[in-house]
Amino acid sequence: MKKNNKDNKKSLLDSRNVRILLSVLIAVVIWMIVTLAIDPGSSTSISGVPVDFGYDSDAYAKLGLDMVNSPEARVKVTLKGDGGDLTSVKDAGDMIVYPDFSSVKGAGEYELPLKVRLKSSQLNNLIEATADGKVTVVFDTVEEKTFDVEVEVQNGSISVAEGYVLHGTTAKPGKVTVSGPQGELDKISRIVAPLGYSDGLQDLTESKLATVELQARDADNEPVALQYASMDNTLADVNISVYQTIELPLKVNFINVPSGFDVNTLDYTLSQQHMTVTGRPSVINALTELAVSDFDLANSFALDKAYQLNVELPDGVESVDNITTVTLTFNTEGLTTKTVNVSNLRIINQPANMQIKLNTNRLNNVVLVGPKEELEKLSASAVSAVIDAGSVQITEGTENVAAEIRVPSSSSIFAVGSYSAECSIQVSGAGG
Hints:
Number of helices: 9
Number of domains: 5
CATH topology of the largest domain: RNA Polymerase Alpha Subunit, Chain A, domain 2
């Protein structure tokens, strides 16, 4: 039995098929050892690897530069080294491809070679990695500038109907900030909202709103193409303000006119009887006349004198001819003055809770103005001084209260100057 076992083992090793199989296995092992561990000349490549333009940015940032373009690139990376090492680099995620910024010395456009760094620091010493091609990168100092938006109305782009005017145009936003390379921003002189021809902007009778694309212009008013710079707003809403025009009469408002006096007896002239104004249609259509500043008849009138009065325009209304004042003159031919002493003093509208006593018995040197014939016939007894206690603020004690000079018998005579009478005032129920 022992002899037979020995014969069986010998026959297995001597089998031709067994020897062939063993030979193949040995050859494969030897090939793998040579290919993966021994052969230093192996190479492989990976395509579509993205270039990381932000990597190693300190190289140009320390020069005060920024990358002003937005480059993108994918390249092929070739790897050389031992076969076993190469198998550790499977795809683009195992490496970083970035520009070589060593040649960047200042602002400008550069064509830069690429570097490759394997993420495994150990493999960087074992594998040679190279990237195909170069990339173009632009550097400059990035700045910001803010410009007012100027509306440019091009010829024929807007027309208004008869009786209306183009009051103005305003843009919203009114300012735009442009950011980008200094060299490009230095070319910009202004930001314009060019308002060209558009349907709906002809024969206007009301204000309109138009959306306009903003444009950068240089000092010669030529468009500046923004290659790298950008605006924080590229569109503006332009308000086209349309006003209506109308001619209106001017009117003087007389104040401090005594009761019974008819201002129509005054013969006066304004240097301008009418004024052409413009404003929003809703405001203009509600006007029938325009007022100049109040004229104080009692305290301002004098014979043979001219007065400059302001034209008081309502909000939103403007003078087409930029007139702000007019001259008021009186025809005083036939008028004269007369000075009288007035003894007829009385109190009206006395409050129920007050007792008012006149301490003044006569007002001296009251100056009257009126037609000469009437004044010559007028006696002092026809003139009265009225203290209206209900129209002034009075307190207990003694005080001077304004007196209005009246001529009941005439509607064309009035007093000039200011007059007052001393009164003793006591509140009812208070001790005296």
